[in-house]
Amino acid sequence: MKKAINTYLTPMLGLMAIIVLNACSNEKKEEAPVAETPEEFTSMQMTGVEQISIEVDLDAAVERLSKAVTFPTISNQDRNDFDVKAFEDYHKFLEQSYPLVHQTLKKELHGDPRPFSLLYTWEGKDPSLEPALFYAHQDVVPVPDESRDQWKQDPFAGTVADGYIWGRGVLDDKNQIHAILEAAEMKLKDGWQPSRTLYFVFGQDEEVGGAEGAKKIADVLEERGIKRFAYVMDESAPLTPGIFPGIKNNTALIGIAQKGFISLELTINGVGGHSSMPGEESNIGILAEAVTKLEAAQFPYKIHPAVRSQYRYMGPELDEAMQPLYSAVAFGKDDELTEMEQKFIDAMAGNEVTRAMLHTTIAVTMFNAGIKDNVLPPSATAVVNFRPMPGDTPEVIIAHVKNAIQDDRIEIRDISASTPATNIAEVGNSAYKMLEKTIRQIYGNDLIVSPFFVVGGSDSKHFQARDFAPDVYTITAIQLENTEEFKGFHGVNERILVSEYAKSIGFFYQIFDNLESL
User: What does the pLDDT read at residue 33?
Assistant: First the structure.
């Protein structure tokens, strides 16, 4: 039987990496760097943004979102285990819930081999303007049977209780789909039309990589001749107070780059036989040795440019004693490595989560061999997942594997719809400032806004890895109460506050307006 490590948690690992690193840094205050902090290492936070309030029919919106949770649009690793009816029924529900959207916007279904990803086109008044795109995903992760009794509410009942909307997908990521559509429906009732064309993309298989849905839609839009998007937004980390140790303020993290994705299958085919007469080597032993060699041959560490941007914005808000270290990273050069930067790397490399921000990772996730305890299997197979840094292409990774294992008996095959590391969204440009302004208009000025490096990935990687969408910003526009609530992502008791959902809708309503200024 194949055994696989759960891969559903990867989209949020970039956030975890930041949390762990700052926790480690705070624990080592007595070892603070002695170098001076440059005078220009000052706060980058936008100030004085006037907060606004958007009136929303919250009761009706909550009823629609809670109903959406009842459609079990689950992505299983076995892609043949696909609930067609759940997706079809969910699509019908969307049509009934947002009539003006479906009367005005062009709706298309894409996906191969299953066309269940949604592409909406809202034609703008000025076709000369670069379009914008908002992304979210329909699919949700499974709820393991062994965790069902830990849920306070049925994960697929869409219960509204104790001031929360409960259920699988309400946080990841149907709240974002419905907030976008609620805002669009409200704009259409106002008689509003965007100046630039807006696209809404709601994928069907984000939780398993997006190869069937988002990738196909990216292909379609590229084939239609779109040269460049002015703005692309996808889900990522929600707003959460206290997410950074040492910063009690509310924090909004904007993902600006994602690592790539590739899975290789390593196979040994040889002679099987009876376990009473084993040879000097077994297929399992040969493959196990190859995997051990590969795990020992880790890719080198380096500081990603997105990490430099992250610490340029976050560093001035962190522990003052550590700021010389953060400024060294923020102002460092990619082709040099200073002593202070090496200290930063040493701190990060000491933890398995923060290490992922430093290099292309190697993760053995599946191993399959044998059918009976007294039979030597004639073959053995392992699957190794890599999350590449820029420059580590599939060809580079395969060459690295061959060099590490030094065994021509091992066949190596790319079994994934591999994606390269993405472009890095520009920080401090008009699009980034527009997003920060919108965040502060809805959620106030008493928060920290910072870019960050996503070591996992969401569906927008299929856009951001291409020339037509370099500036992709990822954030989930929902306010969480605390870090404990964050555990609902792919965990038990997933929920969002009813009152905060109104702000999510208001966020998208306002950002549609703010896009007019780009």
Answer: 55
Q: Is residue 206 annotated as part of the catalytic site, yes or no?
A: yes
373 is catalytic: no
DSSP sequence for 11-50:
GGHHHHHHHHHHHHHHHTGGG---SPPPTT--------PP
Report pLDDT digits (tens) over 47-74. 999 999 999 999 999 999 999 999 999 9
Handedness of CA 139, 145, 148, 150 (dihedral sign): negative
Catalytic residue among 139, 173, 234, 392: 139
pLDDT digits (tens, 9 = 90+) for 249-302: 899 999 999 999 999 999 999 888 888 888 889 999 999 999 999 999 999 999
DSSP state of 427: S
Q: What is the DSSP string of 141-156?
A: ----GGGGGG-SS-TT
* pLDDT score for 259: 92
367: helix, coil or strand? strand
Of 473, 440, 16, 27, the residue nearest 231 (C-alpha): 473
Q: Which of 205, 206, 392, 494 is catalytic?
A: 206
Cα–chain center distance at 438: 21
